[in-house]
Amino acid sequence: xxxxxxxxxxxxxxxxxxGMGTVxxxxxxxxxxxxxLVIFTALVGMVVAPGDxxxxxxxxxxxxxxxxxxxxxxxxxxxxxxxxxxxxxxAKRPIPSGRITPDEALVFGVTLSLGSVFVLxxxxxxxxxxxxxxxxGFYLFVYTMWLKRRTPQNIVIGGAAGAFPPxxxxxxxxxxxxxxxxxxxxxxxxxxxxxxxxxxxxRARDYERVGVPMLPVVAGPDATRRQILWYAIALVPVTLxxxxxxxxxxxxxxxxxxxxxxxxxxxxRVFRLRTGQKAERAARQLFAFSIxxxxxxxxxxxxxxxxxxMADWHWSGMWSV
Length: 321
Prior knowledge:
The chain is mainly α. It folds into 2 domains: about 20-175, UbiA prenyltransferase (Tetracycline Repressor, domain 2, Orthogonal Bundle); about 180-310. The protein has 17 helices and no strands. Helix 3 packs antiparallel against helix 4 and helix 6 runs antiparallel to helix 7.
């Protein structure tokens, strides 16, 4: 593994000694768009889980999970500041742009990591706290420091970090890891490669420039398109497992099935269009659709659970009259 001390010096891109970061810059370190999806999937994990949780405890858990996810983002930006400065997509991030120093980002990320884990462990339960610690550690040490710059399978293996939030949400309610939480983990885990490889297809030059072995750089765009299609084909039946296992109903099955058809159509279009602006547009559209796809799958599961809760209230109210 790369020596961390050497890596820090390599990242000392020109920036003010004391830093000039605003609140907005520090918020940007948290990768708020990623954090919002983490919060949402963790919430679904909590709602799907059996048992009750006090609203204040639930809010505390979500806040701790959000902060932990943001801490992971900050530590990722700290470590990757050298390559972020050379990539068009990331050059304006707070560290390479000079608004926040690497040391400030490191202290910020470590402080939030420790704080979020201890808050979740002490105020909710230590199973959820341990899972959050595992998530942060996996994202930083396994994905960012080890896999990302060494193997084109970085996204496949590293995607596990982004798949943990619903499991943490489940554990916050139950104190253990249930099979429903694992199914939600598998959905995100299988979704990650086609989602991120779609981005990598039209950002391949960025990754090639900084020596990150993303699949399009190492295996070529055609092989990447095949992998995207194969993963999508495998993903669709996985998304239907909640119906098979009995914790989702007809609404979820119909919506998820329709979304799966849309995903396969989009992936097939990416597979067929190999060159030119149409090919890049197809990859961009797949990347955007994949975000909507995952959000809607979890949203309909959340809506279905909410309708079930309201039905229970309705029937219990009728019998109590």
